[in-house]
Structure formats: C-alpha cells, structure tokens
C-alpha cells in the first residue's frame, strides 16, 4: 500500500512537471510572438525603404531637390532684378511696381509659402504618396507593425474562406446591377452625396431611412425616390434641385431628423449636375469612357471637373491628397461592373488606395495597427470636432491609407508564397477597404469603446 507521503510527493512531482510544461509552452509562445514581430518589422522596414526610394525619385523628378528649388528661385529673382535695373532709367513707375513684386515674392519665399493653388495642385503627392509622407511626419498617430500584420492575416482569411469578394457589392440589395441602365449615374449620384452622416452627441436620434443609417440610409432614400418615379439620377433634375425637394427625398423615418449638411449637398448636386450637362451629355458614363481604362486618368478627371470631390490639404509644407469620395467612386464602378467593361482599369492596383473616412480608423485601432497619442485620444473621447485639414485629422486619414498599402503588400506576398492557387486579380486596396468597412458595421457594439474622429466636411 502506498503511504500518504509518497502520494503527496507524486502529486507534487506531477504538478511540477505540469508547471514545467506550461512554462515551456509560454516560452515557445513568446519566441513565436517575437519571431512574428521581427518578421513583421523586417517586412515593414523593407517596404518603407522601397517607398522612401520611390518618394525621393518622385520628388527629384517632379519637384527637384530642396536646394535646387531654392537656387532656381534665387536665380530667377536675380534675373528679374537685372531686368528691372535696366528698365530703371527709362521708366521708373513700372519699376517701382516690379520692385514691389520682388519684395512680395521674397517675403512669401522666406515664409515658405510661394504657393498658388494651381502650383500646389501640380506638385501635390498622390494619395498613396501622401499617406507615406503623412506617417513619416506624424506627431499624433503611430503605425504599429504587428497590428498591420494582424490586419493582413484577417483579410487573407476572408479571401481564403470566400467571405471577402468583389461580388459582394452587386449582391447587396441596395446596389444596382451592372445591367441596369441607371447603374452608372446612380453610383455617381450616391458618391456625390456620400459624406458626413454622423450625429452630434446632443442629438437623440440618428438620421434613418427604412431603418438604415449612414451610407445605406442614403441608398435607401435614393431608391425610394426612384420607386416614386422621381428622376433623381438624372442631372437635368438635380442640377437645379430645390432645398425642399431634396429634403423630401432624404426624409427620415421619424419625419423630423434631418440629414447633416443639407445645404452643402444641394451645392454639390448643382455643381456636378451642371458640369455633366455642359461637357458630358448628362451622363457620368462619358466621364469614365474619357479616362480610356485608366484609374489614374479618371481620378484626375473627377477632381478637376468636380471640385466638391477635391479632397486635399496642406501638411508640413506639402500639398497632400486624400480623395476619399473620388476614389470610392472609381472603386464602386470597379466593383459594380466586377472589373469588366466600364469597370476595367489597367492601372487600378497602383493608383487607388483605401477610402479614408471617420469609421475605418476605429477598426485599425482595434487591430492594433493605428495608435493615437494620449492627447488625440483624449480629444476624441471628449467629442472634440476636428477641422477638415487640421494636422490631427490629416494624420488619422493619411495613416489609414499607409496602413492599408503596407497590409496589401504583405497579403500579396503571403498569398503568392503560400496560396498560389488564389487569384490576385482583385486583391487590392478596394477589397481591403470593403473588409474594414464591413467589419466595422458587423462589430459596431464591439468597437464602441474606440472613439471616431468627427469632422464637418463634404469630402467624407
């Protein structure tokens, strides 16, 4: 018979053995986590190095070195002075005016301005370059490599299981089919009005249509108008639409809650409607055709022809572009037509980024890819309204673009290496944005602990 002390010793030995196994398992897990972190850091640094080189090449090609720009301005200024000195003896009055011009030029140069709007736009970084520049110079946000990798793996899982697919757009009940005659103009109308649906904290009710909120409430309202035989997708109608007409079309379920920025929406409709009628025979399809299958050309056409899509900012002395609505417009055309016909763009993957709004950053914070400074987090929790174009707002949106671009590169590499059977044709920033946006809507309660930034703007 085994003595009690022997049994106790065996129990203690078993507990020690179990504890050793648990300890070893924890060590293995820590080693794996460190390895994953090191791999993620290595991939991010590699990507960052590649993009840094591309950015410098772009700057040299399109802007020149900072020293070169300064030298050119100095040379041009000296040339102007010499010309005016020669004119001094013959005509003093024009010369005084010219000297005033040079003085003003010098003041603007020293202040770091020297920026007419057109010069700035010509020297602007595209959205992808802007995201990288913003993150590189950010003060209030940080990108966390492990979180980016975590996001990438979640997207890969969605691709492998089939839950994440470009076909999801046309399968949604609110969206048109590519065979429907009104599809293209419906998309253009929706993305003209697709901005600022959030409700201030002191407002008890959200704007809802057919029980839907936000973007889908807009879709429901437009579809309701069409069922009621209102020719809402026709620019001949909305180019001169009255406030009371749009107010009725966007009427909420409770009949009292108003959609935010109603007057701004009317201005946007008048602006784009008149331009479509003047230059494109009242059909957005003609704008798409004018781009000749180039997403880059279509993006430029949209922001040039329709200023209300011109989502730009000055950040750290650089003109940056976000172009949320312009890009989502191209993304919706691409998704509706499933990358065929009017939805086929040969340069889409290298041009279109994610669509930087006020909801997607919640998901990026949740996955640990985006980190807010204590100051920024405190302001967001206190419902401080950020101005469109201010540093903190630009940093949040720029970081969102950068994170998705890095995640995209990780996804493409891992699918190529580990899942060669998977087609990469539709693996792009649009697909990742669809994942992020759908994840936010499906997990709204879970993500409520993360505040979203609030901005009154027609751009998103």
From TrEMBL:
Superkingdom of origin: Eukaryota
> Is Cell membrane found in the keyword set?
no
Region entry Disordered: which residue ranges? 23-44
Where is the sequence biased in composition, kind Basic and acidic residues?
Answer: 35-44
Gene3D superfamilies from the UniProt entry: 1.20.5.2950
- The question of whether Membrane is a record keyword is answered with no
> Which InterPro entries does the protein's record reference?
Q_salvage, V-ATPase_G
Select a single GO molecular function from the record's annotations and give it: proton-transporting ATPase activity, rotational mechanism
Alphabetical GO CC annotations of the entry are:
vacuolar proton-transporting V-type ATPase complex
Q: EC number(s) of the enzyme?
A: 3.2.2.-
Q: Cross-referenced Pfam families, in alphabetical order?
A: Q_salvage, V-ATPase_G
What is one process in the GO biological process aspect for this record?
A: tRNA modification
Task: Tell me the function of this protein.
Answer: Catalyzes the hydrolysis of queuosine 5'-phosphate, releasing the nucleobase queuine (q). Is required for salvage of queuine from exogenous queuosine (Q) that is imported and then converted to queuosine 5'-phosphate intracellularly.
Give the PANTHER family listed for this entry.
QUEUOSINE 5'-PHOSPHATE N-GLYCOSYLASE_HYDROLASE, QUEUOSINE 5'-PHOSPHATE N-GLYCOSYLASE_HYDROLASE-RELATED
Q: Which family does it belong to?
A: Belongs to the V-ATPase G subunit family.
> What is the official name of this protein in its record?
Queuosine 5'-phosphate N-glycosylase/hydrolase
